[in-house]
Structure formats: structure tokens, C-alpha cells
Amino acid sequence: MRSKNLHANFKWSSWLFGRPGKSKVPVIFFYGNLLLWGYPTYFFKILPVLYNAFWEWHIIFALSNVLMWIFFLKASLMDPGFLPQDTEEYHYAVRQAINFNDWKNGKNPLGRLCHTCHLVKPLRSKHCCMTNRCVSYFDHYCPYIYNDVGQRNRAYFLGFLLTMCINCLFGIYLCWNWFQVEGQSLLIGLGCLFLIIIGFVSAVMTGMCLYMAAMNITTNERVNAKRYFYLMDKTGKFYNPFDRGLRLNLLEFVHLIPPLSFDKIRRRQISEI
């Protein structure tokens, strides 16, 4: 009977907080801070005091929060770019590997195969150990959205970071003006300190994501550049064949133009290196 209760408790805690190695605690922390503390403090403490003098700020703050939630839910709930599993191309590659003539030269024809998803990994994809799926244009796994950041949701993730940073700046400004009217308050003071910390972190992350978008490279590629043959020139130095210039890189990032094909990337490498 005791073992059944322990098993039931484990299943309940796993459903609420996530399985080991893929915790839901960060995303629960985000929800909890906003819904149980941040918004109640704003609506019941700050808004009644400052609305008449700063009504324009409150409207902009509300709109920015709506945008933040839209971006957050899109980045969190949508498919980030999961690749199809158990493909025929994978099984064909495995069957043909025995006939590969360059094994003796150190070349591995199975290097691009994912034996978990049973697929041939396209350029810029990676298998994520958290979601246990291969993701197109894999950037990283983010515990605060409880999802991978990949080709399909990376623009929404950037929007989430940017609007969160803006909301923190608005919140700090409103807290400062509340202090001028009402004086000191431990609750508002702690809230302001929390906004300063989150605002700084989100600003740094926003800057990093904007830089990656401007350079047309993923976080995974930049951190692990030495692992990818297509990010090195003939001398072994870092080379980014996807960089098309700031404007085109940003247009590609938000899906307004298609990415370069593999053939075009190879031609760029041959002509520029």
C-alpha cells in the first residue's frame, strides 16, 4: 500500500514539476511571480495611486504585457522545428554505410545520423537531450519556456525577451514614481529590486539573441563551432557561410525570406574561402 502511495506521489510531482532532468520549476516560477505576486501588487498597490498622473504609461504597459504573453505562449507551446522521425533516408544510409569507401581515411558516413530519431540530420539541426527530438536550426533548450528554441519559434522567443525587458523598465519607472508619492514600502522595494535583476538578465539575453540573428548563427553553432565542418575554412578557422548581411539575416530570421540552400552555401564557401 505504501509503495502505491509513493508511486502515486511520484507521478503527481512528475506531472507538476516535470521529470528529472527536465524540470518545470523555472516556468512555474515565471507564472507564479507574475500571477500571484507581480500583477496583484500592480493592480492593488501601484495602479490606484498612479493611474491619474501616468495613465498613458499604464496603457502602454498593459499592451506590452499582452504582447509578452502572446510571444511567451507561442514560443512555449508551438513546435520549435521538430524533424520527422524514422525516415526512409536514415534506413537507406545505414544500409549503404557498409559500402562507404572512405572509412579507412577517417571519414564517418554515419556522423549526420541520429540513431534516436532515426533520421539524417539536416545542416544546422541537432538532437536535444531534453525534448529527445532533433530540431531544425537548434539554438538551445530554454527551461523558462519549457521548450526548445529552433527555426519556427526563435523569433517569438526574441519577442518574448524583448517585451519582458521593456515591461521591467516600465515597472521600475512606475515603482520609482510610487515611492515619490507614497514613500517607502518593503513590498514595492522588493518588487523593484526583482524587476531590476530580471530586467538586466533579459536585456543581456535580448542583446545576445539580436546579435545571433544579425549574424545568422545559432547559439549552439557559436558555442560548438569546432564540432561543425561547415563552420570552418580550409585552415580550420571559424567561418560563417550563412551570413548574408544584416538586413537579409534579419529578414531570414523572421521568415520573410527563405534560407540559403545547401548548394548555394557550398558555392559561397568555394568562392569566398
Automatic annotation (TrEMBL):
<keyword id="KW-0449">Lipoprotein</keyword>
<feature type="transmembrane region" description="Helical">
    <location>
        <begin position="155"/>
        <end position="179"/>
    </location>
</feature>
<dbReference type="InterPro" id="IPR001594">
    <property type="entry name" value="Palmitoyltrfase_DHHC"/>
</dbReference>
<keyword id="KW-0812">Transmembrane</keyword>
<keyword id="KW-0012">Acyltransferase</keyword>
<dbReference type="GO" id="GO:0005783">
    <property type="term" value="C:endoplasmic reticulum"/>
</dbReference>
<keyword id="KW-0564">Palmitate</keyword>
<comment type="similarity">
    <text>Belongs to the DHHC palmitoyltransferase family.</text>
</comment>
<dbReference type="GO" id="GO:0005794">
    <property type="term" value="C:Golgi apparatus"/>
</dbReference>
<dbReference type="GO" id="GO:0006612">
    <property type="term" value="P:protein targeting to membrane"/>
</dbReference>
<protein>
    <recommendedName>
        <fullName>Palmitoyltransferase</fullName>
        <ecNumber>2.3.1.225</ecNumber>
    </recommendedName>
</protein>
<dbReference type="GO" id="GO:0019706">
    <property type="term" value="F:protein-cysteine S-palmitoyltransferase activity"/>
</dbReference>
<keyword id="KW-0808">Transferase</keyword>
<feature type="transmembrane region" description="Helical">
    <location>
        <begin position="185"/>
        <end position="213"/>
    </location>
</feature>
<feature type="transmembrane region" description="Helical">
    <location>
        <begin position="25"/>
        <end position="42"/>
    </location>
</feature>
<dbReference type="InterPro" id="IPR039859">
    <property type="entry name" value="PFA4/ZDH16/20/ERF2-like"/>
</dbReference>
<feature type="domain" description="Palmitoyltransferase DHHC">
    <location>
        <begin position="112"/>
        <end position="224"/>
    </location>
</feature>
<dbReference type="Pfam" id="PF01529">
    <property type="entry name" value="DHHC"/>
</dbReference>
<keyword id="KW-0472">Membrane</keyword>
<keyword id="KW-1133">Transmembrane helix</keyword>
<feature type="transmembrane region" description="Helical">
    <location>
        <begin position="54"/>
        <end position="73"/>
    </location>
</feature>
